[in-house]
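As the work plan foresaw, the team has encoded backbone shapes as discrete tokens. One protein thus recorded appears below exactly as we store it.

:::
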Amino acid sequence: MTATDGPSYRRARTAGSQTAVPALVMRGGTSRGLFLDARTLPADPAVRDAVLLAAMGSPDPRQIDGLGGAHPLTSKVGIVSPGSGDVDVEWTFAQLQPDSDVVDTTPNCGNMLAAVLPFAIETGLLVPDGETTTARVLTRNTGAVADITVSTPRGPDGARYVEYAGDARIDGVPGTAAPVRIAFLDTAGSVAGSLLPTGNVRDTVAVPGLGDVEVTLIDNGQPLVIVRAERLGARGDETPAEIDADAGLRDRVERLRLVCGRAMGLGDVTARNYPKMTLVSVPRAGGSIATRSLIPRVAHQSIGVLAAVTVATACVLPGSVAHEVAVVPEVAAPGPVPDGAREVTVSVEHPSGEFSVSLGLDAGDPLAVVGSALLRTARLLMTGEVLVPRAVWDLTTETEPNEEATA
């Protein structure tokens, strides 16, 4: 794999009363969103966010005037730029909501992460030179680093390309596709500062109207509140539609979330998309644990990548809320994990199936998780330009392109 010399992108252009911005629409895991080269976007973060809102059609519940899919899972944006040092690619994840004018660049998204390397290759940011291509990717939101590997065979014209067809299957996505392998190097404390921000594997928090609630507050790539489903009046096997229709349950979840956000040192999270909420119960389909996630106020159709990693981590921490209901697998013989670690695979059940996470455990410290790896898929859905009104971004008022931009 080699990085290209000089600009590998097309600049935005004026198109009548609109501004046309080069963009790709991609599916990453069980999410879908818009991907853009950071250098094509406005340098001013406020103008950039206005462009993203216009491109996705927010705020509007149907996002009828943009490319959003009227759901948080399809209201996502990836902003990609060249890396530096030992990092090949950098990106910023932006979470938009259909009915909000907030662009949140503080959380992670492991599903959209699966499409970052394919985007970099498709746009010429990186040039593959082998049957597989591995790149080190930095998530600027949180500083998390991952090694991502995709298949890049040679086509009839001799050029290598991203292979999207394959036999890998992930629950929550129809059909099969080529695997995208993601190995996280260090995700503990991605937003909350440490794996266990309170220092405890289990906390009891006082919630107005609910009393004392036992939770595990944990961040191994995603700040997460883990709570027994039954404690909030749920079964743990509800469909996402049942959760979304249960206003009482969602109110209890939100009240708990606000209290736990402060307990995790995140302050007032009323307007934040984190911490995410995960209701856990005993497994029902042969996995390790059953989950129902809210992101944070709408039910997830499956579970986020980094939420799955974080739940799996909680499953192997003795004393956690997840550990007490999980069928914890035996730790396997040493596998492809750092020296001195042992590997275990945790199967996280969710509404669309299951998600297997491989964890590297420190043999000498039961509370230390030293690595995680998983498999996702991705696909390029559309390439072209997204158009936003010139009233949002007028190129005629700018003198220089944003070539120095980072994601």
In short: Confidence is low (pLDDT under 50) at residues 331-337. Residues 25 and 382 are 5 Å apart (CA to CA). Residues 247-263 form the longest helix (17 residues). The longest strand covers residues 378-389.
